[in-house]
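Retry 2 of 3 after timeout on previous attempt. Resubmitting structure tokens to design endpoint.
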């Protein structure tokens, strides 16, 4: 079986590994642009890991409900996991030290089939517990480098601006797939995202976090132009919402 990647819109993805393990990253499936959210959530009978880059509601999304339903373990920084358990109700027994880490650390999970390295992002991470209390501390924002045994290495940037230390990612991991935010306004836009791709030296790049709301004005077309301007060697793959991509084909192409 090849590694599969499904995009649900915004920054929400499902990864199915070569042996059928299921990972969700920033699982806001019930976002405004994914019309089949209810049906998809109902169909998620088994999820092994839920990875959350930071505490904003468009990234935490449906994590708590899906976690309670499936028993999925939470992969997040220590501070974010603590906030999600205490303020949002994520099951504490599914957010223990084996899947909780911090920047610079790498976790070996699911009997070695998946490794997750915590990397930094430049953004915020407040957790919205309810409308009355405002944002709660959710630690620092981040991204993930996800290495799949017998599959690709995926860098999910989370929400971030361009910053020079992105170049360090490729010193420790050869990035096959980079899931990069391009929407502008709350994150870097197409020009700065294209510069980030060049720093990371990703083989294939997939844009995300655009088009969900009118203020997210960055587009794949502009992003493609910016990549060409910088003579990036990365292959651009633009996914449709709800589309599933075979990552091993992307890796080998």
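Retry 2 succeeded. Sequence:
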């Amino acid at each position: 079986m090849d590694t599969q990647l499904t995009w649900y819109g915004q920054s929400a993805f499902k990864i199915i590994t070569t042996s059928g393990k299921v990972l969700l990253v920033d699982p806001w499936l019930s976002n405004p642009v994914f019309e089949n959210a209810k049906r998809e959530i109902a169909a998620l009978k088994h999820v092994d890991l839920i990875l959350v880059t930071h505490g904003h509601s468009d990234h935490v999304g449906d994590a708590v409900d899906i976690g309670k339903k499936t028993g999925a373990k939470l992969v997040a920084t220590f501070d974010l996991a603590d906030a999600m358990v205490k303020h949002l109700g994520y099951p504490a027994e599914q957010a223990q030290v084996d899947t909780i880490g911090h920047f610079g650390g790498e976790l070996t999970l699911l009997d070695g089939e998946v490794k997750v390295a915590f990397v930094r992002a430049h953004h915020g991470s407040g957790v919205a517990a309810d409308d009355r209390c405002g944002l709660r501390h959710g630690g620092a924002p981040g991204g993930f480098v996800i290495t799949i045994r017998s599959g690709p290495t995926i860098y999910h940037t989370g929400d971030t601006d361009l910053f020079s230390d992105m170049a360090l990612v490729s010193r420790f991991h050869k990035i096959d797939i980079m899931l990069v935010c391009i929407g502008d306004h709350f994150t870097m836009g197409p020009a700065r995202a294209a510069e980030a791709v060049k720093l990371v030296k990703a083989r294939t790049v997939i844009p995300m976090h655009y088009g969900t709301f009118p203020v997210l004005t960055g587009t794949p077309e502009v992003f493609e132009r910016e990549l060409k301007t910088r003579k990036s060697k990365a292959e651009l793959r633009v996914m449709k919402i709800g589309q599933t991509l075979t990552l091993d084909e992307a890796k080998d192409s």
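Attempt log closed. The radius of gyration is 17 Å.
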